[in-house]
Amino acid sequence: MRYVVFVLLGVLSTILSGTVFSTSFDLAGLGIQVDIVLLIVLALVLVEKSITPIIFAAAAGLLMDMMFSTTLGMYALSYTIAAAVASIAAHRMEKFNSLHIFIVGAGGYMIKELVMALIVFAQGARQFDLGAIFLRDMLPSAAFSGALLLLVYLLVSLLYRNTWMRPRMSSHFLDEL
Fold it and tell me: Which residues are bridge partners to 32 per DSSP?
């Protein structure tokens, strides 16, 4: 049942991110972009300390690529790297407080955007100023993503209170090392 919920979350968040909260959505004229897929991925990483959210990030990213991107792998790679880094950071933390959740949200958004910028740069786009984009677009969006992650984390943790959503065996890919 939990995998059905993962599929539904992935499809719903992809549709919301690509339509309602697309890049044309400008929150209060500040250039803030809301990425629902990334918020759900990061909340799943914080709630479930296993490799499943990283696989979910790759699958949801591929769905975003197929629906909204001209380059296959741009979203999938950026979501997967952000989820892996957040998973490593979450595995190192023993307890979470709201500041940790905010930092994971803001940091995950920054990692996703930087990976996407590197992909665009590798494809030959040389006419963008990363410093201006960083200050004008990335920082406000990262702060807003960190604040929204607090709410999404609360909702996902409430969902995980149900016994059918919990994994049968708790393991993390770093436990093997």
Answer: 27
Low-confidence stretches of the chain (pLDDT < 50) are 24, 177
Query: Phi and psi (nearest 5°) for 27?
Result: -75, 110
Burial of 109 (0-12, 13-18, 19+ CB in 10 A): buried
Report d(CA 22, CA 114) in Å as an integer: 18
pTM for the predicted model, two decimal places:
0.84
**pLDDT per position as a tens digit, 41-84:** 999 999 987 888 999 999 999 998 898 888 888 899 999 999 99
Tokens of 26: 């400008």
Which DSSP state fits 134?
A: I
- What are the backbone angles phi and psi of residue 32, rounded to the nearest 5°? -80, 130
Q: What is the DSSP letter of 123?
A: T
Residue 33 makes CB contacts below 8 A (sequence gap 6+) with: 21, 23, 25, 27, 137, 141
**Buried/exposed 73-95: b ≥16 CB within 10 Å, e otherwise:** ebbbbbbbbbbbbbbebbeeeee
Token pair of 123 as six digits: 């494809």
